[in-house]
Known about the structure:
The longest helix has 23 residues, at 95-117. The termini are far apart. This protein is an alpha/beta fold. It has a domain at 4-195 and 226-254 and 296-316: Rossmann fold. Helices cover 40% and strands 16% of the residues. The strands form three sheets. It has a seven-stranded parallel β-sheet, with helices on both faces. A three-stranded mixed β-sheet has the order 7-9-11. A two-stranded parallel ribbon has the order 8-12. The chain is globular, with a radius of gyration of 20 Å.
Amino acid sequence: MPRILLVTGAAGFIGSNFVELALEAGYAVVGYDALTYAGHRENLAAFEKHPKFTFVQGNILDQELFYSTLQKHQVTWVAHFAAESHVDKSISGPGAFIETNVNGTYSLLMAARKHYEGLSSTEKPRFRFLHVSTDEVFGELGPTGKFSETTPYAPNSPYSASKAASDLLVRAWFHTYGLPTIITNCSNNYGPRQFPEKLIPHMIFCALQGKALPVYGKGENIRDWIHVKDHARGVLLALEKGIPGETYCFGGNSERKNLDVVHALCSTLDELRPRSAGGSYRDLISFVTDRPGHDFRYAIDDSKAQRELGYVHHFKNFESGLKETIAWYLSNLEWSKQVTSKPGVKVSYDWSKI
């Protein structure tokens, strides 16, 4: 029987890339998104007329709508991407993160449990609820070591705390109610269609305007970068081959200091779009006061996913994926202009200078 896959946060960065992959793999997909500031129909434009794609505009806090959507489309798999995810925003306004990430996930679990319990004995073994989380729930690392599925939780920001709480709710619904859940934790994503509040697209658009490129502290914080398409492949593998109750980590095996990321970005822009004023984009780098509670280092050991799911990294190094990503933004400036020019969006760029 066909798998009907419902994707929350489908119009967001990672969600839309996952929708694309799932459709390419032949799955019928129901995209579910509230279309907040970081979720855009433009991200789904290429799939809107696909015969196996349906879009539902809805908030994950709307338990009744979500349940009725599961019922109407006879959903067999849920991939839950929807979340507030920007750490800086969580520091200045944590309430939205608790509401969306904790209460929203609770709402989905309640609806999913009701849907699951109404399935027939032949349909129940096929159902999955996959919750997408982050490596930030594990806290921070020192100079050595990596996070894995057995690392204790130690979140340090309101964002990571809200994601840790949602992870624990998902775990509880498996152990208490028997809902067949799977949790995935990933490292920093990059790639096409990422909303430009995040490091890489924000730096691209600041550079193209000739504005300062703000780097926290001395730029020595280290992140493991995974291309969004590699992450999407991992999530799909977890749905296809994962065991309910298990957690799977996905990393990029590409640890870089934040300053090294910005240097690589500037060098690539120098090659693809040289500055009209001359010189390198590196000349625009400036160092700003570090943010509160800034974790020093993240890195993921994804050997379990490689061993049990057959997960592989298609992007063998960060720099090749970064060049492709920057080229995408340079070729899709109209997309960027549209998604940053909507009411309520606080990211502002002077597009006349780009």
